[in-house]
Every structure is written in structure tokens, then in C-alpha cells.
Design a protein that fits this description.
There is one protein chain. It contains 16 helices and 53 strands. The chain is of the alpha+beta class and 932 residues long. The radius of gyration is 31 Å and the shape is globular. The N terminus is likely disordered.
Amino acid sequence: MMYRSFKICLCLAVAFGTSDLLAQKRALTHEDVAGWKKIKTEDLSPDGKWAEYIFGPDEGDNTLVIKNLSAKADFIIPRGSRPKFTFDSKHLIALVEPQLDSLRALKRLKKKKDELPKDSLAIYKLSDGSLEKIAEVKSFKLPEKNGEWLAYLSVAKPDKKDSTSKKAKKVSDDNGYTLHVLKLADGTHQTYPFVTSYEFSENGSRLAFQSTGDDKGFSPGIYTVSKNDLAMKPVFRSKGKYDGLRLSNDGSRLAFLFDSDTLKKPFQTYGLFQWTPGQDSGRVIVKADDPFLMKEWQMAPQDLKFSDDNKRLFFGTQPKPLVGDTTLLDEEKAKVDVWHYKDDYLQPRQKVLSDDQLKRGYLAVYHFDTKKPVQLGNLQLQEVKITKEGVGNFALGGYESAEYRVVSQWEGSPINQDIYIININTGAAKLAKKKARLMENISPAGKFGYWYDVADSAWYSLEMTSGTIRKLTDNSKVLFSDEENDSPNFPSPYGIAGWLENDSHILVYDRFDIWKIDPLNPATKERITRNGRETSVTYRYVKTDPEETSIKANAEIILKGFQNEKKQHGFFALKLKGSAAPSQLIMEDAQLQFEKKALNADTWLFTRETYREFPNLQLTNNKFSNVEQISDVNPQQQNFLWGTEELFNWVSLDGIPLEGMLFKPDNFDPKKKYPMMVYFYEQNADNFHNHITPEFGRSIINFTFYTSRGYVVFVPDIVYKIGYPGESAINCVMPGVTSLISQGFVDKDRIGVQGHSWGGYQIAYMVTKTQLFKAAEAGAPVPNMTSAYGGIRWQTGLSRMFQYEHTQSRIGGSLWEYPLRFLENSPLFWLDKVNTPLLIMHNDADGHVPWYQGIELFSALKRLGKPTWMISYNDQPHWPLRYPNRKDWTTRMQQYFDYYLMDAPAPLWMTEGVPAVEKGINYGLELSEDHK
């Protein structure tokens, strides 16, 4: 069973004594870390009587647990994945993956993809616990709001015997697979051949699918299946290219794209088709050459969307792509990029966006009442925002001119836009605001556009019928933007909770509270949470219904509360109709996180975690009474030394009060001297109660792993002075470290420091200014702000200029305005002062910080004869993502710091290196026989 008695645990602690229990525990090893598990998905049945969750290690087979919440009984499906309860709460459907070890063994034997084992389908009946498994399944789907049937694609090969053809048609991604439709109550079952796409209507009344047809008389085309009797009806039968299959929510309309030309060509000339029950065949409503289309434009192969009232069908159009000279061979073509100073974006950014631009659809709508299509978006109004339901008469459009995009390369995002009101019925666009630097959206009922304007740190509403713009917040009495902003940029907003029904009010966050604001009369704003600022509690709305678009005006809502000084977390209830402050439901010295609410029941899942307590699933209700833990995925934790956590306060060299997190080993003795690791990245103290699962991390030390093995770990907060980021780090971190040394339990000769990216930069800067650290590691650092300033963030293709002028690097201006700031903050120019061994990790496919920055740092230190190593994982981005690489990096970092701070033997990669000719054969992880 997965339940633990806290009374028993307490009795054991009293009986044996805390010191005796600790003596029985041991430090974590890498083998222990590899087996540590996480909860990966969780859900509740709509009736709230069942829960499911998947847990497993980072790499390995997962386990699906189906839990009867009343009987407190578990049913286990090994390797279960993608579980989903049926809408009627009678079944749970999931896939069952092959064993990972079996797959690897077959891959080692060079088996082809189609020879490898496939997923199975598991159908678990909740009422009697029976389980049916179906082999060789590719995917399955359930209706969102009907639990009577399901559909799945089988990858099993059809019967090869076919006397009518010389070669039987094979199942494949292009040809399609066998579609099975199954009624769950009585097992009624139908199959359809070579299906490439399928989908249910939301209410589950109808299923639609597209087939490429077989060789036995089943024609290619679109078909529907009725829920009641699984009767199939052809909608449209013809060879050609299909796309965009979509049913309306109630199943009364079906739409798809179709091109009758079967020849291979650079693009498809689709027509838009629609079908309703009673029609003998789907009919084209927008032809491929329809006059409504702009010149040299075509239908875009993208998802279609019906409005909830079925009066509209939204689709996309796009310019026809350019086609090059097809007579030339590839080796006859020049491969060249042309950079032009008047281009809106640099070539790397254009390349990143090119695929999206080729596929982008510009929003259009077909009105069923007038039988007319209307174009809403275009090359200027690329982003058009409509309500979730697709109703209302207006859409919101934004136009980014080339001028705006050019300056964004050094100003950053958001980009200036011209805001337009678009009439959905006519397509007419009216300019509402010129050159606004904002993040915009449309209200749920479509009555207002709204945005946060970065330039004046204020929220605005746009009345769609009149075009009137109203300033919702003026920051005169309270700030609705980041009060603690310490970068040379406009402060970010705290955000919004949502809108009340019928767009009557918008709920806006300040640092602590929630304000109800009338978009037509902002002066009447009301602080509905009453006491957040006074009690230092930050309130945030908990959206328990994922389909919710607006909040009922008389609702009782649930709020997440965070007590900023004590770092406590809790949940509160607030009645929107009334004058009372939020009512506390639960408040603990722990991190509490809402996960799920049952669709049709007052059953909730949340997690509770601390540094020592894993975030297991907790079962409760909306009053948070009768809280019950329903998972225990890492019971082995009790066998290991872990650590404790506390807040630590000190004052920066600038006189600023600061706080940080201090982690100590389980068997901490204040009279002993401990090695200490220091890690930082801006501010982390608000994460005080976060559980830190032992894992092979992407870039930073695992605090739990290090405290388990006898280290103290210190995580200080940093505040920044514009123009002097490196100095700011020194001013904040160093007095924190020296304050801890003065406590008497830190060995001042055994202190290491580690950080990644922005943290890596600060460490590279620090080691040019202090010799306090015995060893340091800097991941993906920027040692040279002058060369990095003109570089590219390759993942996005953006110029790096904005980062230095306005965001994290905090220089506050261009290289030409503040050349000395760039030089003073660049460690490269002061590396001759370094006397601290430095380990660098920088990957050759880093899309955030150019790889050459790590090379500049390593090469300079190498020339200066400083002890330095650089680890570079091939084809990996800003962090090592592949599991073997993460495990390798965790091992090397531990070996490095253990050598300098724990007197452990050095590994061969540190003492001798790993020659390129031995790459992939010798990793150098063996420990040297020589000590130091």
C-alpha cells in the first residue's frame, strides 16, 4: 500500500532517537539518483471517485497507478502512458509502452523500426477492475464530453492475401493505418482501412475520419460514423490531398480542405469544403481560385475552427510560396545569404522565422448565414485575436511595421505595434492606437481589447464598438508593475486574474492584491482582496476549470496565497459579492500547489512539498478539510541522509538587506568545519520550500545530493545596480559568504562556487576580483561583453544587443554610449588576476550564449597557465539535455568539487585530459591513484 502512518513514524523517531535514525542512513550515490522517481502526470475522473498518476525515473519504465479513492485500492499498469478517463467515469484508457530494456536490446541487434515492439491499448473498467489489452496500437482518441465509445489506430499489418493486386498496400504514415471504433458498453466494433486522421465532435455524437482507401473497393475520402449504431456515411470520396479535418462541437457540421491534384508539387491548391447531416456529399464553400482570395494567395493547410454557435468557420489563407528553377541540379545552385542594412530582421532571425512564415495562415472566416468568406488578417495584420468561442463582432489585430521590428533588435520585446479593431462581419480594420509597445488580448465576450503598455507601465481597455481607449491603472496609489525591477528596462506587469462574465470587470494584480476594474469606468476600481499588502500576502487566482473563459460575478473563488516574509503558502476563499477579506482555508510552512479539480465533483488534488518532503499528491475538497496523501513514490528517501534548510539574512556592501537559502547536512554539528558550495542566479529565496529531487541536472549542482554527502550549500539573493552587474554580484554574494564564515561552521579554505549562464558570467567576473573560492565552475559564461554584444542568440536568431542595453546584463545602454561599462564588466580583460581553478561547461549548439564565449574564456586562461577545463557536449543547446550527458556532467562536477573541497582523488580527465582520438571510448572518469 502507498499510505504511511505519521503516528507510526513519530513513534519510531521517539523510540530509536533522532541520532540513531541518522546513523542508519547513508549518503546518496549516483546509482541512487538514477532510480529516483517523479510524478509525471495526474488526473481525476469527472465524478471525483478515481485518481490516476504516472510515476517513474528520468530514464526508465514508468508506472501508471489507478486509485479508487473510496476503497483506497490501487490498480497498477506497468509502463502505462497517456491515460484518460472517459467522460462518464466508467473507464480509463491508456497506452502501454514496450519495456525500455527490450527496445534497447533490439536496437543493438539493428532491428528496423517496423520490427520493434509497439504500444498496446489498455481499457480498464473502473466498476469491476477488468483490464483488456489490444496489441500494436499507434494512438487513441476519446470524445471530450461523451464516454460511450473510443477510436484507435492499429499499426498491425492487414491481411497480405489479395488476389486482385500484385502487391498489397502497406500501412504507413502516408497510407494510413487501420481505424477501430469501439462501443465500450457492449463491445460493438467496426474497422476502417488506411486512415490518416480522425477526430470526434466534442459532444461525442459523431466521428469523422479520412482514408486513402484500399485496393478492395473502399474509396479514398472523408467519412463519418454515428455514435448510436456506428453506421458509416461517406461525406466526400475522391483521390487527392486532404487536410484540416474538423467537426463542430455538436457534430452538426464538418469541414475539411481538399485538393484534387494528386501530382507532387511545391504547394497544394486547396478548396474549403463543408458538410452537414442530410447532405449527400461535402460541398465546396470557398474554391481554390475564389475571388475572395487576394491575388497570388491560397488556402493555408492549418487547423479549422467552428464558432461555438456554429455560425462561423475560421480558416487560414496565405501567399503562394515562391518556386525556384526546378531544372537546376542542387550542385548548380549558389548557396548564399544576403544581409541588407534595411532588412527588418537579421538573416539568422529570418531563417528561424522562415519555416513559420511559409506555413503561416492569415485568419479568415466563412459566415454560414451570408454564405460569404471574409479576410481578417493579412501581411500587415499577421496576428488576429478572436474570442475563444469565436463569437462577437470584433477581432483585435496588431501590425508590426518593418521600422518597429528593426529597433526591437536593441530594444527587445514586446515590439511596438499599431492596434486595429477588425470587424469580423466585413473585414474592415480601423486603427485604434499607433505605435504602442504592449502585450494585447481580447476579452472573453469580445467587447474589449486590453493590454499592458510597457512604455507607461499601465493597463488599458479598448471599447470595440466605439474605439474609445481608457487607462485602467495609473500607478498613482499602487503599482501594477514590478516594484522591485532592477534592470534598465520598463517594469513587467504582475498580470491579470481574468474577466468577470459578460466583460463587466477585469481583475488585475498588483504585487499583493487583486483589483476589480470596470473597463468603462476605471476610477471605481476596488481592491477585492482587502489586506494583501498589509499582511504581506500575495494573492493569485486559482483557475480550477481549464475551459473557463470568464468568472461569474457572484462566485466564490479560490486564491493561492504566499506570505512573503515567512515564505508560507496557502489557499483562501473569496466571495466576489461582499466586503470581507479572503478566508484562509490552509496555510503551511510548505509549498502548496493546486493540480486538478474533478469536473463534476468537489474533489481536488494538490501537492505539498518542502525541502525534505517530496511533492506527493494530496486529496481534498474546496474547503481543504480532510487532506489525505494518496501517493508515496519515493519511500526509499527515509534511508538516506538529506539535509535541512533555513533562511539566512545579511546586508550587502551597499547596505541593502538580503536573504538567501542555507542548506545544512542532516547530521550538522555547529562545532565542525564544513566545505561549502555557493550557487546563485538573481533571486531564489522565495523558492524556500521547494523540494529538490535528486536528479542528474542540466547545469547546476543538486543541493540535496551535496548536503547528503556533507556539504553546506548557500544560495544568496542578488539585487543589481544598473551598469554594474558584476560589481553588484560581488556586493551581495561576498558579504553573505563572509557572514557564514563568521558563524564558525564553514571551512574558509574549502568554499566552491557554481552557476550557469547569467550565474556563470558572474562567477567568471568574481574570480577576477577575489581568491575566497577554492574552486569555481562557470556554465555557458560571457567573459567578453564587447564581442557578445554584437553576437547572435542562435536559437531565436535575435541580436544580443537588447540583452545588454535593457534586460539581464543590465549595462543600460549601447557599446558606444558606455564603452567603459562593457570593459569593466568583462572578465576577459582581467583574467591575469585569476588564481582560482575554473571548470567551464559550454555546449557547441548553445542557442542562448554563443559557444565562442566559452572558448574565449578557456583559451585566455590556458595561455595564462591557469588551471582550467572546458566540457562541451556535442549538438546540445544551452544545457545538456540528453540523459547520458546530464549524468556525465553531474559526475564530472562532483569529481571536480570533491577533489578541491573534499580531498578526494582527481579523475583522469582532470589530471591527463581526454585526447580527441579517444573520444567516445575513454571518458576519463576513473580516479587517479595520486591524491593531490
